[in-house]
Amino acid sequence: MKTITNIADRIQLAVLTVMTSVRSFADDKRGEITTDTLGGFIIGIVIVAALVTAVNVALPGFFNTMMTSITTKLNTLLSTALSGSGT
Q: What's the whole-model pTM score?
């Protein structure tokens, strides 16, 4: 009788160990934050691309004018800094 009780206890312990392992595996959410963060970045990139496309359609020369203006100002700042004159 003692042997049967011992076997039953071992089976019960094995079942509890397996159940604990399965529950632990199911509750593991370590990758969830990474997935949410990457999803947020992707959604942000899609929104920015849609806004850029909308502005480009509404104002066709906007980005070219802006880039030309930025280039001119940066070249002016760089030449001023390299020449040693400034305010």
A: 0.45
